[in-house]
Amino acid sequence: MSCKTFFCVDAHTCGNPVRVVCGGAPLLKGANMSEKRQHFLKEFDWIRRGLMFEPRGHDMMSGSIVFQPSSDDYDVSILFIETSGCLPMCGHGTIGTVTVLIEKEIVKPKKEGELRLETPAGLVVATYKRDEKDRVKSVKIVNIPSFLHSSNLEVESSVLGKLSVDVAYGGNFYAIIDPQENFSGIENFKASELISMSKELRDKLNEKYNFVHPENETICGLSHIEWTGKIIDETSTARNAVFYGDKAIDRSPCGTGTSARMAQWFSQGKLNKGDEFIHESFIGSKFIGRIEDEVQLGTYKAIIPSIEGWAKITGLNTITIDDDDPYAHGFQV
Ligand code: PYC
User: Fold this and answer.
1) Domains delineated in the chain
2) CA 167, CA 152: separation in Å to the nearest integer?
3) Active-site residue, 3 included
4) DSSP-derived 3-state class of residue 94
């Protein structure tokens, strides 16, 4: 019998959970976080399932495991864990992780106000501001190059009928479904209805098309569906409801989903370098996005997006995974 202990700080970013594993991480092999992610998936995925699935987690659970950096170029390395797997990049997860690492003094930044993060998708630079109580007030992350992968792909929904979707990359591949003849916008749907329609569309799009990152073939497959619709607050630019895992709608505006959507708008000429993009989530929480730069990524005209948001710590959580427990490695219903 063996019992493993994980020292976690639980938080949420704009309403979406982030469980940050600060102690108990396995030793991973690999020259960088992308290679270490492959090693984790092969040998240690039970840790993700145990910490994310019921009975220790839930459908929306998401988080990160913190590692020593692979090189002096970084302050810290991060592996993202979620109900769906190990994402190459997670925006709300990064904002929550930075808040935890700074507020709980788990990592001492080389430069005050900045953390250089090694993620499986590449370098992400985070800057943070403190409030008068010295807590982290907000975190801005400069994300990896994001691009529109394809436009107007056709997919048939058994509920809605024929849909036209764009696919964009912002750290994960997103099918963006904007209002159109057969879809009137997220304001007319419950979260449970969006969830029940999303999985079919993701499966069909992955069956029909190939989504592979031009520089890293381990980043492949469409993982998220980003439904859009009318804003609630008139100061916002746009609103979304992002489906992930098997049953989750992101409570935050989704950092990688916001990056993907900014890349889509950039390609459509609706957003330029320097423009701000205030993105509202399904529950009305907000991220401030911005196009920091334009770059070429293979054949794609990409953007470097930044995302700014806030997170709050909700508690300290020492979690055990005991082989003796029939649900040691979690379950999904
Ligand atoms: O914020 O990038 C994000 C994210 C991905 C999945 C859920 N949130």
Assistant:
1) 3-142+312-322 (3.10.310.10), 146-298 (3.10.310.10)
2) 8
3) no
4) helix
Average pLDDT over residues 140-155: 98
Q: How far is the CA of 92 from the centre of ligand 1 (A)?
A: 5
Q: Active site includes 90? A: yes
Other C-beta atoms lying within 10 Å of the C-beta of residue 330: 19
Amino acid, res. 313: I
Q: Quick check: 260 and 277 in contact, CB under 8 A?
A: no
How does pLDDT run across 226-274, given as a tens digit for each residue? Answer: 999 999 999 999 999 999 999 999 999 999 999 999 999 999 999 999 9
CB of 91 closer than 6 A to ligand 1? yes
The residue annotated as part of the active site, out of 8, 14, 90, 220, is 90
pLDDT in tens, 170-225: 999 999 999 999 999 999 999 999 999 999 999 999 999 999 999 999 999 999 99
Q: Is the CB of 308 under 6 A from ligand 1?
A: no
> Phi/psi at 192 (nearest 5 deg)?
-65, -30
Does residue 90 line the site of ligand 1, with CB under 6 A? yes
Q: Hey, what are 271's tokens? A: 């957003």
What does DSSP assign to residue 117?
A: E
Q: Which of 141, 224, 246, 283 most suits a substitution to test ligand 1, by most atoms within 8 Å of the C-beta?
A: 224
Distance in Å, CA 249 to ligand 1 centroid: 10
pLDDT of residue 1: 55
Mean pLDDT for the chain overall:
97
Residue 122 near ligand 1, beta carbon < 6 Å: no
**pTM, full prediction:** 0.97
Q: What is the mean pLDDT of the segment spanning 116-138?
A: 97
